[in-house]
Specification:
15% helix, mainly beta, two-stranded antiparallel sheet, 15-stranded antiparallel β-sheet, 495 residues, 19 strands
């Protein structure tokens, strides 16, 4: 990376060769002093003084903008109990400093686990919770790109310690006095995340071979992001265009954006399990499981962007005079300014069953079946709760076909076939009407559009899948591999 003196030499060489500066609308630093000298606004002595000053500035932009990144992680744990009841708990704190000054990620976490284990009864309860706070520089600043590409002949501060400003031209042709460090102070991108998760398991042993178990899990999270630019930032200056009543899109204050996402979901399951061995030397083993399951997931999001924002005194919004027609006609009628809600609820109910059989752990067979119902299915769908199923098997064949080959450590043939069900995102059995953000010019009223037509026959997208593979381990476990073939076919697309 060139220092300021080397960068000055490049500029001098370009001048001596009469090379043109393409796409430059405003000069700064040495080039600005040279232009002033050509115009006669400064004499040679002043030009020489400024040239020497810029040649020795050598601004370390990376040093001013970035910092050494480090993190600290602290955990406090407490555990104990008896032979029957045990508990574990922990508190955690994480602090990560970003590579850009002022950026950080702080997280507070907690874990609690309690287990009660009796001869015929097992209960487990666990809770996890965490809160994180993250602060970043807005992506629109392009702060790292600025640090890499800005000339070191430009100072960041004046000799008296105040910010040094140089003129930049906005897209509307206005001159803005710019300093990246000040612009960074006039903006922020902050996110708070709060999440918790609760899980519970109860298992009741009816007989040595048969037990019942129920599980429940609930999770909730809230992600709140706030992004702002103050009235003195370059971002706002670009929105103000030529500062006229019909073009100024941010005439008062700055801009504040809020994105909030909430998610709630729970899962409940009741399952019966049976496992036994039988026959000579207990060579046969059989496992059977079956149960029902309910799931629900609720997502809600809210997004809005408001202008006229002042972060002073905790943040407030001021009134924008109605004379600024550009603000009201071009900005206030847009979706970000009006705000938007997004909510999605998915409920599912399922029943399932699995069975497995093995002989001497050599021949293994499994069967799985599952049926589901969801609020995503159409009202006339004829496959509610109808099952999807799969078969699989494995033959551990070393003892049968390679018993005398010492260089073969393991050899197994496995195969499977089954149906899979999938519901593509964005599909709905119901009509969805979305309100348009603009106003109909003929009726002078808001209107709506149909964004999704109803599909009462909506059902699973079914896919058949076939797989066969040979797994092997050779030469004292030094070589492992698998050779397989699989085939998928979609036989029923969403109606």
């Amino acid at each position: 990376m060139m220092n300021s003196e080397e960068r000055m030499d490049v500029s001098k060489e370009m001048v001596e060769r009469r090379m043109q500066y393409n796409n430059v609308t405003q000069f700064s630093g040495y080039e600005d002093a040279l232009q002033q000298y050509y115009k006669g606004t400064i004499n040679y002595n002043e030009f020489k003084r400024q040239s020497d000053y810029y040649a020795n500035i050598n601004t370390d932009w990376l040093g001013l903008i970035t910092q050494d990144s480090y993190s600290q992680n602290h955990t406090l744990t407490l555990s104990g109990g008896s032979n029957r009841i045990k508990f574990y708990s922990s508190l955690g704190y994480l602090n990560e400093n970003g590579t850009i000054r002022g950026e950080y990620n702080k997280r507070y976490s907690s874990v609690v686990n309690v287990t009660a284990d009796y001869d015929q009864f097992l209960a487990q309860v666990s809770f996890t919770g965490n809160y994180s706070s993250r602060n970043y520089s807005p992506a629109d600043l392009g702060i790292m790109n600025y640090a890499y590409n800005t000339s070191r002949t430009l100072p960041a501060y004046n000799p008296d310690g105040s910010y040094f400003y140089y003129p930049v031209t906005t897209p509307a042709g206005q001159i803005f006095n710019y300093n990246i460090l000040r612009d960074k102070d006039y903006s922020a991108d902050h996110t708070d995340l709060l999440a918790s998760n609760l899980k519970a398991l109860i298992r009741l042993k009816i007989t040595p071979k048969f037990n019942l178990e129920g599980t429940f899990a609930y999770a909730i999270s809230n992600n709140d992001r706030q992004l702002y630019y103050t009235k003195d930032s370059y971002y706002i200056s670009k929105l103000r265009a030529d500062y006229s009543l019909r073009s100024d899109l941010a005439p008062v204050g700055g801009e504040w954006t809020k994105n909030e996402v909430r998610n709630n979901n729970y899962t409940g399951r009741l399952q019966a399990n049976y496992a036994t061995t039988f026959g000579l030397e207990k060579r046969h083993s059989l496992t059977i499981s079956g149960g029902t399951e309910i799931k629900s997931n609720e997502y809600s999001g809210f997004d809005i962007t408001r202008r006229g924002y002042f972060p002073e005194m905790g943040g407030y919004f001021d009134i924008v005079p109605t004379t600024y027609t550009g603000y009201y006609n071009q900005w206030m009628s847009t979706k970000p300014a009006l705000g938007s809600f997004n909510r999605q609820l998915t409920n599912e109910f399922a029943w399932y069953g699995t069975t497995g059989y093995s002989y001497r752990d050599k021949y293994i067979f499994n069967f799985h079946i599952r049926g589901e119902q969801s609020n995503l299915f159409g009202t006339r769908s004829n496959n509610k709760l109808l099952p999807i199923y799969a078969f699989s098997g494995r033959w551990n064949m070393r003892e049968d076909v390679a018993r005398n080959a010492s260089w073969v450590n393991d050899l197994a043939l496995k195969a499977s076939w089954g149906w899979q069900g999938n519901m593509l995102p964005g599909q709905s059995p119901y009509m969805i009407i979305r309100q348009n953000a603009s106003t109909d010019p003929y009726y002078n009223a808001q209107f709506a559009n149909i964004s999704n037509y109803p599909n009462p026959d909506l059902r699973w997208e079914r896919t058949s899948s076939s797989n066969i593979a040979l797994d092997f381990t050779l030469f004292g476990n030094k070589v492992t591999g698998s050779v397989g073939y699989f085939y998928k076919k979609n036989s029923r697309r969403i109606s």
